[in-house]
Design a protein that fits this description.
With 211 residues, this protein is of the alpha+beta class. It is built from seven helices and four strands, in the order H-H-H-H-E-H-H-E-E-E-H. Strand 3 and strand 4 form a beta hairpin.
Length: 211
């Protein structure tokens, strides 16, 4: 049997090395994707609060640094710019929350549900959630919510309901008789936080600077 010619052997070696390099690159890419996924899952529970704290901290520092003796018109312009920054940050936070899968959303929803129940009287509640969460993660969410309530010294009987109105994520908690409700849908929750942060910035610009 004839041995391969030198050009053929060289071509085979080049092809083999290219495959080895491709395999190494693929392995590195898989490992990096795994690290990103683990990090995303680990941070999902803290995401909402971190978004608010990060934006608030950055804006406090940036605003305090430039406010010394600005005239009123310049303060108004600064407020408009800061409001645009706030809007952009919260839109980004909302997109991130909305893109989370049902599994990653459970810790966040449990915390929001416990916050809402803490604002209501009684011990029987209906918790409305996104339909895919109700379908796939009902048991996990019920357990996580019970655990979160237990950490806060509260016990409650909770019934989960799917709600198409919560397609963007979050929870709405109603008292069992329907007389009281707390809306912690992601867009609603972030609008409230955004409004609070805007007020905080306005106080820094016009209140502290003028005192």
């Amino acid at each position: 049997m004839a041995e391969p010619s030198k050009p053929d052997a060289l071509a085979d070696e080049i092809l083999s090395e290219a495959r080895r390099q491709a395999d190494r690159k693929l392995d590195r890419a898989r490992k990096r994707a795994d690290r990103i996924l683990r990090t995303a899952r680990r941070r999902s529970e803290e995401l909402e609060q971190q978004a608010l704290e990060a934006v608030a901290g950055d804006l406090d520092r940036e605003t305090a640094a430039v406010l010394a003796d600005l005239p009123h018109e310049e303060k108004m312009r600064t407020l408009r710019v800061q409001s645009e920054v706030i809007d952009g940050q919260f839109e980004s936070a909302l997109r991130t929350l909305q893109s989370m899968g049902p599994e990653d959303m459970v810790p966040v929803l449990a915390r929001l549900g416990a916050d809402a129940i803490g604002a209501l009287d009684g011990d029987r509640f209906v918790v409305e959630v996104r339909p895919d969460v109700a379908d796939r993660m009902a048991s996990a969410l019920t357990d996580a919510l019970a655990a979160e309530l237990g950490r806060r010294g509260r016990q409650a009987h909770v019934t989960l309901e799917a709600s198409a109105a919560l397609a963007e994520g979050g929870v709405i908690v109603r008292s069992d008789d329907g007389r009281e409700a707390v809306d912690h849908a992601f867009p609603t929750r972030l609008r409230r936080l955004r409004r609070e942060l805007r007020n905080r910035v306005a106080e820094i610009i016009f209140g502290e600077a003028g005192s």
